[in-house]
């Protein structure tokens, strides 16, 4: 089987992290985001993966070489010379996606969930029509495009309603699809949107079905959602009793959902959790309080610091008695001085912060 | 002026000197709230000692001072215990509290008690405002007084031009040090040499001077005009109340000093040392820092020994408990029986008696009230203001807020909560993050 991952551009929404690493390589739950997707695809029997990108950083090429061997898949870049929207990249990769009659997966690289690729493929095969889109139920559908089914049909889509004012349903497009190669002939090689153009035309001919996603779902394309998504991901690991999590018997674990890389060092009298990931080679000092945060590899959190709702970028240092909160994001190699308070600061790489950041601000 | 200046002995030998410490009264200390809700301002501990005691430590260094009067309109019992303790600590000084039953003004109070002050025919006497924090260079004032055969010496200090109009401004002859002109809180810029609120007067000239001011007052009631904006909230309101009262309210600053400047024997000693007013409760933090620095420079044995976790100067009361992993200083005072937990950080702050700071909490630029409790990983924080600033408020989002965070008596801050630039009245529990607020 084949898959296409829509990676797109520079991931500016996830800056300052994406100033250092391309978005697919930013660690989510201590592993590069794209690895969650590659692993799930490989488990579902996918052998050919196309990454639709606007640019191809060297670092990505190298990383993906490694994953090719690890998961025994073939990964190819499909580079757009101009942005082609969400459908154009499929046409661009027609040679691979259309090389045989088997259907292919399409996924948005920002989406994090329990990828149900095997079940999705089985369902798609069973209804026998051109396409299936994964849908997830949300509390406030008015913010999204809502999927409405044909009357009396459980999965065949009747129409899409963009940001509905009145309640028409609460299933929204989750950004994961499985499509037959015949769909490629519906797409022209130009900037075009799969949601706005391709799907509506398929719906008209009754060729598009929906598949309900179980469990969590999150678009983690920006820091606030990246942190929320981490919480959902860790909760789902807890539910599954995953070995990836640090056991609650560790004295520093507070409230569960804590993932600590084995190479990280944790000091005395810390209280960590709930919803914390700590990356490789991180050093946490004594008396540190962490909750709802992501500490990326090589960082150092000094004694008595307090961190909440924050992403601490790679190789950063957080001073003693510092306090970070309210979606603070530190880029690579940032230094926060002792006793400093940062409220919602986005700090670009290699900066040293010596004065409080009292209100959310970008620190250039 | 019809003051007669008799021939005076040029040498200081055999002269007697007394002192008066002006403490004001409970209705005057409102700007020191919320701390003055529980302790009268003069008795508030700064650098381990009541504010008033710092005046007495300076007075005790002048050997010829044997008698000091505390003048104010607090009730008698307020100073009773402190006077008892101070009489032991300063055995060579007799200390008496003289209570004004109505606010007479700083000069009016002196005049009212002139018989007590003049008993034993002292030649001169110091007048110290208790709410002043400075090094009190009294011996230098005395020296200038004798050198110049002065009738009055005022302690002056230079401040920034912007700040000067909030104080009494002195124009002086740089060479002779004579005071040429004195204006209390002028509207326009006159001088950046200001009145420190510390004076030395000859008894022969000051009482006649006050007397003639009183006489003028009864003949021609004073016109009130204090239009500078900074003063409006503080002095103007007080003046209004005074208007209804008898005309006996005579202030040294407004009513006497300007006249003295007309005499030829009024001199200023300019101190290059530190000087601050202790008006608002927040100003206790810089005052604490200045007195601690002074104690450190004098190698005072009261201070905690510097170490990896004690950044000097730090005062820790012998009965306070401080965990060895807590890091304190600089400019921190810890009161009696206070309990400082492991991994706590305290900087530029005063922690009052019986307060408890739990583990890993962080206290910066704050005052923690008596018996208050700060939870684990809490952060109680003010905003640093420049050391040269005479103001403890800052502008945040266009609103004037206190730069020093103050928790009144028996307040609580929950675990992990952050309190920034807040004033918290006594007996409040803070369970949520707060900033830039007064919490009733």
UniProtKB/TrEMBL annotation, chain A:
Entry-linked InterPro entries: GMPPB_C, GMPPB_N, Hexapep_transf_CS, Mannose-1P_guanyltransferase, NTP_transferase_dom, Nucleotide-diphossugar_trans
EC number: 2.7.7.13
SUPFAM superfamilies recorded: Nucleotide-diphospho-sugar transferases (SSF53448)
GO cellular component, one term: cytoplasm
GO molecular-function term, one example from the UniProt record: GTP binding
Start and end residues of each Nucleotidyl transferase domain: 2-233
UniProt catalytic activity: alpha-D-mannose 1-phosphate + GTP + H(+) = GDP-alpha-D-mannose + diphosphate
Compartmental location: Cytoplasm
Major location (coarse): cytoplasm
UniProt KW RNA-binding keyword: no
Domain of life from the UniProt record: Eukaryota
GO process annotations (BP): cell wall organization or biogenesis; GDP-mannose biosynthetic process
All residue ranges annotated as the Mannose-1-phosphate guanyltransferase C-terminal domain in the record: 256-363
Pathway: Nucleotide-sugar biosynthesis; GDP-alpha-D-mannose biosynthesis; GDP-alpha-D-mannose from alpha-D-mannose 1-phosphate (GTP route): step 1/1
Pfam families given in the database record: GMPPB_C (PF25087), NTP_transferase (PF00483)
Keyword line: Cell cycle, Cytoplasm, GTP-binding, Nucleotide-binding, Nucleotidyltransferase, Transferase
Function according to Swiss-Prot or TrEMBL: Involved in cell wall synthesis where it is required for glycosylation. Involved in cell cycle progression through cell-size checkpoint.
Assigned protein family: Belongs to the transferase hexapeptide repeat family.
UniProt name for this protein: Mannose-1-phosphate guanyltransferase
Automatic annotation (TrEMBL), chain B:
Reaction(s) the record says it catalyses: alpha-D-mannose 1-phosphate + GTP + H(+) = GDP-alpha-D-mannose + diphosphate
Keyword Lyase applies: no
Recorded GO MF terms: GTP binding; mannose-1-phosphate guanylyltransferase (GTP) activity
Pathway: Nucleotide-sugar biosynthesis; GDP-alpha-D-mannose biosynthesis; GDP-alpha-D-mannose from alpha-D-mannose 1-phosphate (GTP route): step 1/1
Signal peptide per UniProt: none
Domain Mannose-1-phosphate guanyltransferase C-terminal: 311-438
Domain Nucleotidyl transferase: 18-215
EC code: 2.7.7.13
One Pfam family it belongs to: GMPPB_C
Keyword terms: Transferase
Membrane-spanning ranges: none
InterPro entries tied to this protein: GMPPB_C, Hexapep_transf_CS, Mannose-1P_guanyltransferase, NTP_transferase_dom, Nucleotide-diphossugar_trans, Trimer_LpxA-like_sf
Role played: Involved in cell wall synthesis where it is required for glycosylation. Involved in cell cycle progression through cell-size checkpoint.
Entry's family note: Belongs to the transferase hexapeptide repeat family.
PANTHER family: SUGAR-1-PHOSPHATE GUANYL TRANSFERASE (PTHR22572)
Protein name, per record: Mannose-1-phosphate guanyltransferase
Annotated source species: Aulographum hederae CBS 113979
Lineage: Eukaryota, Fungi, Dikarya, Ascomycota, Pezizomycotina
């Amino acid at each position: 089987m084949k898959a296409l991952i829509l990676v797109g551009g520079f991931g500016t929404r996830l800056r300052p992290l994406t100033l250092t690493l391309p978005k697919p390589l930013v660690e989510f739950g201590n592993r590069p985001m794209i690895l969650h997707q590659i692993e799930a695809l490989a488990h579902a029997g996918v052998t050919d993966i196309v990454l639709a990108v606007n640019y191809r950083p060297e670092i990505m090429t190298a990383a993906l070489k490694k994953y090719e061997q690890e998961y025994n898949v073939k990964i190819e870049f499909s580079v757009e010379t101009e942005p082609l929207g969400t459908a154009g990249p499929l046409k661009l990769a027609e040679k691979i996606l259309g090389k045989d009659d088997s259907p292919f997966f399409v996924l948005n690289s920002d989406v994090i969930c329990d990828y149900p690729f095997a079940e999705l493929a089985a369902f798609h095969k069973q209804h026998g029509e051109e396409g299936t889109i994964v849908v997830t139920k949300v509390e406030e559908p008015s913010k999204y495009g809502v999927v409405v089914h044909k009357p009396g049909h459980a999965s065949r889509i009747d129409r899409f309603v963009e940001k509905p004012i009145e309640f028409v349903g609460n299933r929204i497009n989750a950004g994961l699809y499985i499509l037959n190669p015949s769909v490629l002939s519906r797409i022209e090689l130009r900037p075009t949107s799969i949601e706005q153009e391709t799907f509506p035309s398929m719906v008209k001919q009754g060729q598009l079905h929906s598949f309900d996603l179980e469990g969590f779902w999150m678009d983690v394309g920006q820091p606030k959602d990246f942190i929320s998504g981490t919480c959902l991901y860790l909760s789902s690991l807890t539910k599954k009793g995953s070995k990836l999590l640090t056991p609650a018997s560790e004295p520093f674990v507070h409230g569960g959902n804590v993932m600590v890389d084995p190479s990280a060092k944790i000091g005395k009298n810390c209280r960590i959790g709930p919803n914390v990931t700590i990356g490789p080679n991180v050093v946490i000092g004594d008396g540190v309080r962490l909750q709802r945060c992501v500490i990326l590899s090589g960082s150092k959190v000094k004694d008595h610091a307090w961190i909440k709702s924050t992403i601490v970028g790679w190789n950063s240092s957080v001073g003693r008695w510092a306090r970070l909160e309210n979606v603070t994001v530190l880029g690579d190699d940032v230094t926060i001085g002792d006793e400093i308070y940062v409220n919602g600061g986005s700090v670009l790489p290699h900066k040293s912060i010596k004065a409080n950041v009292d209100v959310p601000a970008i620190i250039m | 002026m019809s003051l007669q200046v008799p021939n005076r002995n040029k040498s200081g030998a055999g002269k007697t000197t007394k002192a008066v410490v002006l403490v004001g009264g409970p209705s005057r200390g409102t700007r020191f709230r919320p701390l003055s809700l529980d302790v009268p301002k003069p008795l508030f501990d700064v650098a381990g000692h009541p504010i008033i005691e710092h005046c007495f430590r300076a007075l005790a260094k002048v050997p010829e001072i044997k008698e000091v009067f505390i003048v104010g309109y607090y009730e008698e019992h307020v100073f009773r215990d402190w006077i008892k303790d101070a009489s032991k600590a300063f055995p060579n000084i007799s200390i008496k509290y003289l209570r004004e039953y109505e606010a007479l003004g700083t000069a009016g109070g002196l005049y009212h008690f002139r018989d007590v002050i003049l008993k034993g025919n002292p030649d001169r006497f110091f007048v110290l405002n208790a709410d002043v924090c400075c090094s009190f260079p009294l011996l230098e004032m005395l020296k200038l007084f004798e050198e110049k055969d002065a009738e009055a010496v005022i302690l002056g200090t230079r401040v920034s031009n912007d700040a000067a109009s909030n104080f009494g401004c002195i124009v002086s002859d740089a060479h002779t040090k004579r005071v040429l002109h004195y204006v209390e809180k002028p509207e326009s810029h006159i001088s950046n040499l200001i009145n420190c609120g510390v004076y030395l007067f000859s008894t022969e000239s000051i009482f006649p001077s006050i007397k003639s001011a009183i006489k003028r007052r009864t003949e021609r009631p004073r016109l009130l005009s204090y239009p500078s904006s900074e003063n409006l909230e503080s002095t103007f309101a007080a003046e209004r109340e005074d208007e209804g009262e008898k005309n006996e309210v005579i202030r040294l600053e407004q009513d006497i000093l300007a006249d003295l400047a007309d005499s030829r024997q009024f001199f200023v000693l300019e101190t290059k040392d530190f000087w601050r007013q202790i008006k608002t409760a927040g100003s206790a933090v810089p005052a604490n820092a200045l007195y601690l620095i002074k104690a450190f420079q004098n190698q005072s044995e009261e201070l905690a020994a510097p170490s990896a976790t004690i950044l000097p100067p730090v005062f820790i009361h012998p009965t306070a408990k401080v965990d060895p992993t807590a890091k304190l200083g600089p400019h921190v005072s810890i009161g009696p029986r206070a309990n400082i937990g492991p991994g706590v950080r305290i900087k530029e702050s005063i922690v009052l008696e019986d307060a408890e700071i739990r583990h890993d909490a962080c206290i910066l630029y704050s005052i923690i009230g008596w018996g208050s409790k700060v939870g684990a990983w809490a952060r109680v924080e003010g905003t640093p203001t420049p050391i040269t600033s005479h103001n403890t408020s800052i502008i945040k989002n266009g609103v004037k807020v206190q730069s020093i965070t103050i928790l009144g008596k028996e307040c609580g801050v929950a675990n992990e909560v952050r309190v920034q630039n807040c004033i918290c009245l006594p007996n409040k529990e803070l369970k949520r993050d707060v900033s830039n607020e007064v919490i009733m």
